[in-house]
What we know:
Layout: H1 3-28, H2 34-56, H3 65-80, H4 88-111, H5 120-129, H6 133-154, H7 156-160, H8 174-201, H9 223-241, H10 250-274, H11 276-285
Helix pairs in contact: 1-2, 2-3, 2-6, 3-4, 3-6, 4-8, 5-6, 6-10, 8-9, 9-10, 10-11
Amino acid sequence: MTDKQKAILEITIIYIIIGVSGILSYQYIDVGNKIWNMFVADVVMTVVCYIFSVIKKNTSTYDAYWSVIPFYLLAGCYFFLHGDKWGTPQWVAAFVISFWSWRLTLSWARGWPGWHHEDFRYVNFRNKFGKVFEPINFLALHFYPTVIVFLSFWGMIYVFDLKNSLFGLKEVPLYFYLGALIAFLGGVFELLADNELDKFRKRPNPQKSDILKTGIWGRSRNPNYLGEMMFWFGLAIMAYAFNAPWYAALGSVGMWAMFMFASIPLKDAQMMKNRPEAFKKYKEEVSRVLPF
Length: 292
């Protein structure tokens, strides 16, 4: 067994433990509301993940949480919200979420080198904040992403809950399926982007100044983030079709803001630092996000 295989096995066990902690917390910590119960379970899982991050001295332990937990929440909806009685809309939504979750998780596993690697942003935070890094590590790098993902998923509980007022009606608003299509296409965008990125990483005779600009990366500098935004806004549209409150979209808006004003600028700054001339030309030729 290679070092990476051992690392994959270890982190798989970690995420099984994280999932079990979520199941137990949902069953034994009752705050009187199924949505809040799910949120509490999510927070408990985040705390467990953070503990493992500290043990491994690697905040990238959390990286897989982003894509794994929505599937855990989906599974929770199935088992605790009478999934055996779901209809076509619920299964369409479940397929879209599962496709996004499994594809992104497998892509992460394919590109993760192992425990010796930690995302450059986390390394920068460690170096910048020193002794006060751990509070920032938990609040900013673990808890905040958990909250924003849960808020973005929250509206889907209105789709999966059989007690929703629209459940059982013969007709579901057509824009539900439009939202599903947008979310699915977002996952497809990410799939194309990740495949191109994998080919780029395996290119012969790599040079530090090389820039990925083949396929979809030749149309958008951030097709993966574009796919993410499409996915989360697609979920919001599906949720609205099942009478989710207007503020159920705040998570998706928060996602958009995080990508546009944090993730993309940080990535651009890193690219400009490592490949100044090549990246400057790339910025002039290719759109920041939208592929046109």
